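Deviations from the work plan: none for this task. Representative record:
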Amino acid sequence: MGPAHLSDPEDFMLLSRNRLLAALTLVGTFTGCNRYALFNQAGYEQAAFSNEADILFVVDNSSSMSQEAGALGTSMDAFISRLTSTDGAVAVTETLEDAVGNYITYTQDRGKFLDYKIGITTTTPDDLASDGMDPGEGGRLVSAIIEKDDADVAEAFRYSMLCETTYWPSDTPRSNSGEITDCSSTPEEGVTQEFLDCVCGFDEWKTTREGTGTEEHLESALMALCRSVPNPPEACYDSLSIFVDSEDIKNDDFIRPDSTVVVVLVTDEGDSSRRIPSTGTEIDLATPYLDAFAEFDNNIKVVGIGPLYDPAVDSQPRCIDGAGFGGYLVDRIIHATEQTGGFYRYIVEEDAGAGCVNSDFSTHLDELGVLLEDLDTSFQLQSIPDISTIQVWLDGEEVPKATGTPQGNGDVTYDEGWSYDSAQNAVVFWGKWIPDYNADVEIFYRPLSDKPRDLPPM
Amino acid sequence: MRLAPTHSAAAAIAVAVLGVSVPAAAQEAPVDVGVIKRSDKSVVQKLLYSREGRIEFGGHLGWMPFDSYTTTPIAGAHGAKHFSEEWGAGVSIHGGYSLKNFTYRQLESDAYGIQPDAYKHLLGVSADAQWSPIYAKFSWRGKKVLHHDIYGLAGGTIAIEQAMMPDGTTATSPGFSLGMGMRIYMDKDSFIKVQIRDDVLIQKRVKTADTQGTFLKQNVGLTVGYSRLTKGK
């Protein structure tokens, strides 16, 4: 067969078009994108292993909270004693024995190595009682920042809580047993006017203002964070935010660049923060605030000490003063704690006689201390991982997966390496692999969703 | 008048043969050219640059630019045995080192915190059959005539690649190759070779073995090489 003659221009055009199509197909085949699994990289979160912890208490200062806040203020000792340096925090290493001793102290009692700061604000955005932001309003700290090296941290915290934060109504109990001169311990009957006179000075506690009854815990926390960093992120300037008109009010760089921030919400009410939609399917989620917290460079955890409410069984909180409110307002706080690796505990409990009593705050604060210690060994992941894909690197060396041994009580003990804790969605380090502060930690994992987040254009 | 295709070919052969022999016929006795078989019919009667029976060897430089997350410079050596002007068999070996491209660097930045499980190309070895159906020449700005041929290739390949993530796992990936290229002749013994080649690999990746362990990967390489030919027959 001889070559085709393309005397007809249309035939020639057709052939050219087919060749072009074939060529494009070939090029398309060549340039087809290769598929790769995408791993989340958590190494940039290594600041979580800094020994700096900045703890922000956001305290409900409505009138219903006075006794609970007072109880919190007088329960700080357990927390402080866990974290305050006693022995071993200032390491002296002159001999091998010193080095071994320091290492043992360090690994067994790591809380003492934490360098913490405490700030307190309230749940009131602005009580409009005066021009501008008063201390405690709109995320402004009520008093000076309390630091680990202060002479008496527990006393400073108690003073700030009782005398500067908590609103004490006029019907605050009186013991009528005369002036108290030794206020080192709380009276058995609870916080009384005489006790407050002792702690704060005569009638000084009456100067605190009653906070709003529409508590905005998460908004207040966010405002406090915005005032505490040199360069507030975009979320601080949201149109709903009161920060826009008061950004010149600062919290003295309360948040340090590499610190872990723990926000402790203390309240007997639900959260009515303004950025959370009041209708729709997401009224019970703290998502707008979780997104805002994510804009900060710090690792932020939320702890809630709030209403007695179990989402699984309760439609609304129990043991509350006054009118009830929807459980979804508490769900928001619980959601924030769950998503950030914190915890939620009840501010009141039902006793055997079906009455309601304050919780033991010293237990909650002790748990807070444990949480801070856990920061050193557990590393929360942003997405749920395919566990089989987790890879952990410490200072450039791959960390082996720890072997778990089930115990009789249901607990699991691990040898050296890392393990995955599904409850916290965190990688936990064990034994000699526990990272030193500021160690270079990298964790890679393939998220179960297979798409870590919106990707840049290819 | 218009000749049928077969008549055209025959006429061309006759012109080619007679065109040479007619002037000589005026001075010398006629030469018997014997029987011209059908297989002897070709539009090109005498290739200026012939490869038949010769061995090609040379080196090449190239780039694999089309991967989603990497870009890879490569350098290598190649050789081929040309059994005829159309058919040959070749081998090639090259080394490379993949670099993270802009997308990869963007992904691993703090803004995204993502690491693709991409593999860096280290070594590739391939053997293929080469078919050169087209021989042609073209003029460069009307001054120089370049003789060239265009060929296609198909064969087997194997590549050694290494994960770019810190585990550095290596993968030895077999596959097949498809490609095409052009040989531009410099003289009778050398040519420049421009080639595009797609190595389609089957790659096992250990980090995702529990969900998807085997991936199809394409390494598309653009190469420019220089080849020399051994003495012909």
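Residues 111 and 374 of chain A are 9 Å apart (CA to CA).
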